[in-house]
Amino acid sequence: MIPTPSTQPGPAGAADLVADPLRFGVGARVTVAVMSDRYAEVILGALAGVATDGLVVDTGDVSTYVGGHEADLLRYLTDLVDAVAATGEHAAVTLHLSRGCPGEVVCELPGGAGPRAVALPPGRRTGRSGAAEWALYPLADDVRAGVEPDHMRDIEAAIDLARTTGTFRGSEHFVTRLEGDVGALVETVVGAWARVGRGVQHVTSHVTVSLNSPTRSRG
Amino acid sequence: MIPTPSTQPGPAGAADLVADPLRFGVGARVTVAVMSDRYAEVILGALAGVATDGLVVDTGDVSTYVGGHEADLLRYLTDLVDAVAATGEHAAVTLHLSRGCPGEVVCELPGGAGPRAVALPPGRRTGRSGAAEWALYPLADDVRAGVEPDHMRDIEAAIDLARTTGTFRGSEHFVTRLEGDVGALVETVVGAWARVGRGVQHVTSHVTVSLNSPTRSRG
C-alpha cells in the first residue's frame, strides 16, 4: 500500500531482481465498470478475446491484478480497453500501474536495487476514442540510497510523450486530461510510467478512462 | 499531474496558504460507475440527496472534482458512497484524494509551505458494506526543503487507523484491502490521508470501492 522500501543497500543479485518483471513488481490492477444491466456478460465477452500471453492474471471482486513485462502489459491493456470500447457500452476503466515495489505494506525490494530500463514497442491504434484523467507518481523511496528524484526531468518526459502521442489536452485539479484513440491513451500512460522508471525505481500511475460517454457525445 | 513543487523556501503568508483548504489544494476527484442501464438516473438520484455545504464541486465527464476542508470531504464522500450503496445496484466508486499540491503540472505551493494539521470528526456508520483497494502516497516533494519523509511512521499511522476502524483485511499487490461499513471505509481512507498529512505536505490517495458485488454475495 504505502511505498516503503527497506533502507539497506542493494542485495547481491540485484541485477537479476531488476531484470525479472515479476520480482521487480511490474504490474497493474484493472477495474472495468460497464454501465449496463448486461455488465457481467459484456465484461466477460470483452475479456475472452484478449490474450494474456506472458502475464500473470488474478481476478478479484474489486480489480484484476496483471503482472509481467511492460511490453506485455501495454499490449494487454490496449486490447482490453479496445475490447470494452468496441462493445459500445458506456464504461469506466480504472488502471493502477506499479513498478519497483514488489511486496505489500513494505516493499520487498530495497531502495537502490533499481531503476529498470525497458524499451517498449509502439502502441497500437484502435480507431476508438476515449477521455482519461491521469496521475503519475515518481516515488522518492530511494532518497536514502542516494538517488535524488528529479521531478522536472520526469514531467518533461511524460508531457513529451503525451504530446508525441497527441493525447495531451490540459491540466485539471490533481490530474492531466488526455483524449484520443484508446490505443494512444494506453501508450501514453504505460509509456510515461516506464520512461520515468528509467531514472526512478518505484513509479506508480493511476488513470481513469471513460468510454462511450453520452455526456461527450452530446457535448 | 506529476507532483512537482517549486524548490524555493516558503513564501511570506505560507501560514495563510496552509490554513485555506482550497489554496492548500485539499480535494478529491470521484468517479461513480453504476452497472445498470439506469446508471444516469441512479447516479443523479444518489447525488441529489448529498449535501455539498462548504465544498466546491465541478462535474466532468470522467470524474467530479470536490474541493474543501477535509471534514467536509469526509462527510460528503461518506454520504455519496452510502447513497450509491443504498440503491442496491452494483457499482464501482473511484476516489482520488490530494492535499498539499494545488495547481496542475507544477504545484503552485512551494515545498516546505506545509504540512497542514487538521482534526477530523469521527466518520458516520451507514449499515451498508463494501470492499475497497487502497493506495496511499506520502510524496517527498519537499526533500530539498529539508523535510525528509518517514514512511514507517506514515505506514504505522495508516495501518493503526485501519485497525481502529476495523476495515483492514490484508495486503495485495500494490494495495491494501479494506472491507466493512462504507462509512468506516471512507473514514479510514480520508483519516489516514489527513493523518499522514500532519508530517508531509503533499499526500495523495487512490481507492476503488466495490458496492453490492454479486461476486461477493455468491462467495
TrEMBL record, chains A, B:
It comes from the Bacteria. Transmembrane segments: none annotated. InterPro entries: MTH1187/YkoF-like, Thiamin/HMP-bd_put_YkoF. Residues 27-104, 133-216 form the Thiamin/hydroxymethyl pyrimidine-binding YkoF putative domain. Pfam families: Ykof. This is Thiamin/hydroxymethyl pyrimidine-binding YkoF putative domain-containing protein.
